[in-house]
Design a protein that fits this description.
Layout lengths: L3 H19 L11 E3 L2 E4 L2 E10 L2 E7 L6 E7 L10 H7 L9 E9 L9 E10 L3 H18 L6 E5 L3 E3 L3 E7 L3 E7 L2 E15 L5 E5 L19 E2 L4 E17 L5 E2 L4 E4 L3 E6 L20
Helix pairs in contact: 1-2
C-alpha cells in the first residue's frame, strides 16, 4: 500500500512540474501580446492556431479569427475552482505528451464584447492542447531520432581469424564476426525514446584488394582440426605478406516514442570492427637425407 508520504511527494513533484509548465502563461491576461508557436494572447483572449489531441485524434483549432464574434481563452485544468492540484488531474496533465508544449486546459468562450471572466466553459472534459503543428513536431522528432540512431555508441562486432596471426598461402583462412542486438533509451524533445538495433548484414574486407558482402551471414568458428577448410566467409590468399583484415557490420533499427509501438527506422548504421593484421606465410616441404647430428646445418635441422 502506498504511504501518505509517497502520495504527498508525488503531488509535490507534479505540482512543481505543472507550475514550471504554466509559468510562461500566467500573464495571459496582461495588456501585452504573448506569442508562442504561432498563437498569442490578447487581454484574456487567445488567437491563432492551436492543436488538440483527444482520444488519439488530432484536431486543428483556429480561434480568435477576425470574422468570429466570439473570443476564446483557456485555463489550466488542475488549478481552477473545481480542482486544486488534485493528483488525478495532475496525472492526466502529465499525459499531454503527444507533442511539445502540451497543456491540459479548460476552454471558455463568449462574445468578445462581454467580460471574459463570464464566458462559459466549453465541453465536459479538459483537453490536451499544443501550440506547435504536430506534423512539424513529429518531423523534428523523427529527424532527431534518426540522428541519435546514426550517432549511437553501437558496440562493434568481435572479429576472429582462424588461424591467426599467421596463416598459409593457398589455404583458407576462416573469418567471422559476432555482433549482438542493442538497446538505447534517451529523451529527445521532451519525449521518451527507445531505439533497438540489430545486426543484419556484414562486409568482409580481406586486405588484399578483395572483399565479400554485404551479406546476411556473419560466419562462424571452426574446430582447430578443420582449420584451412573453406567456409562461406573464408578467404584464400594468393601471395605472402601482411594484410589488414576488417569487417563492417550494418545495423538496422526501430524505435518507440513514450512506450508506443515500435516503428522501423530509415537507413542503417555502419559500424566497423577493430581491424586485425594477418601474416601470410609460404609452406615448403623437402626430402632430406642429412643426419642433423652429422650435419647440423642441413635443411630442417
Amino acid at each position: 500500500m502506498r504511504s501518505a508520504a509517497v502520495d504527498r511527494l508525488t503531488i509535490t513533484i507534479l505540482v512543481l512540474s505543472l507550475f514550471m509548465l504554466w509559468a510562461p502563461i500566467t500573464s495571459a491576461h496582461s495588456n501585452e501580446d504573448k506569442t508562442g508557436g504561432g498563437s498569442s494572447f490578447h487581454d484574456g483572449d487567445v488567437i491563432g492556431e492551436w492543436y488538440q489531441h483527444d482520444s488519439g485524434v488530432w484536431t486543428n483549432l483556429q480561434v480568435g479569427l477576425p470574422e468570429d464574434p466570439n473570443g476564446y481563452r483557456f485555463e489550466p485544468a488542475c488549478f481552477d475552482d473545481r480542482n486544486s492540484g488534485d493528483i488525478a488531474c495532475l496525472r492526466q496533465a502529465a499525459t499531454c505528451t503527444a507533442a511539445s508544449d502540451g497543456r491540459l486546459v479548460w476552454w471558455f468562450s463568449g462574445l468578445r464584447v462581454t467580460d471574459p471572466a463570464t464566458w462559459p466553459r466549453l465541453g465536459a472534459n479538459p483537453s490536451c492542447i499544443y501550440s506547435e503543428d504536430p506534423a512539424a513536431f513529429q518531423e523534428r522528432l523523427r529527424e532527431a531520432i534518426l540522428t541519435a540512431f546514426q550517432e549511437a555508441p553501437i558496440t562493434p562486432g568481435t572479429m576472429t581469424l582462424q588461424p591467426s596471426p599467421h596463416t598459409l598461402i593457398g589455404a583458407h583462412t576462416n573469418v567471422y564476426v559476432e555482433a549482438s542486438s542493442q538497446v538505447f533509451e534517451m529523451e529527445l524533445l521532451g519525449q521518451s525514446i527507445r531505439i533497438e538495433v540489430e545486426p543484419t548484414e556484414y562486409t568482409f574486407n580481406y586486405g588484399d584488394g578483395t572483399s565479400y558482402g554485404p551479406v546476411s551471414t556473419s560466419g562462424g568458428p571452426l574446430p582447430e582440426a578443420r582449420w584451412g577448410e573453406q567456409t562461406p566467409t573464408s578467404h584464400m590468399y594468393s601471395q605472402t605478406g601482411d594484410f589488414t583484415v576488417g569487417i563492417t557490420t550494418f545495423f538496422s533499427g526501430q524505435y518507440s516514442v513514450n512506450g508506443g509501438p515500435m516503428i522501423p527506422m530509415d537507413g542503417r548504421a555502419e559500424v566497423a570492427s577493430p581491424s586485425q593484421l594477418v601474416s601470410v606465410w609460404r609452406a615448403e616441404s623437402r626430402n632430406v637425407a642429412d643426419n642433423c647430428l652429422v650435419n647440423p646445418a642441413g635443411v630442417g635441422c
